[in-house]
Amino acid sequence: MVKLQDHLSYPPRMMRRERAAAYLDISPAQLDRLVADGILPKPAKIKNVIMWDRVDLDAAMDDIKALGAEAGINTVDQYLDNRPKGKGK
To answer: Phi and psi dihedrals of 40, rounded to 5?
Structure first.
């Protein structure tokens, strides 16, 4: 397991896989599944380094929460289980 730096007072704008997963408090494998399912945005490739944009991750989570609230669902898992096909980032 990769040990992440914890001395930052703010999250970096661009994050590699392990840091992006830690930012969302999920495992790297779960991050991969959510990206593959179109729920989270795909990463960018910058000079052969694969990175996620923190703003895009925040926007995806905001969208999930808002759509769940509109549907009267109070957890992300319930929303994801009930979301219309083709929805997601």
So the answer is: -110, 155
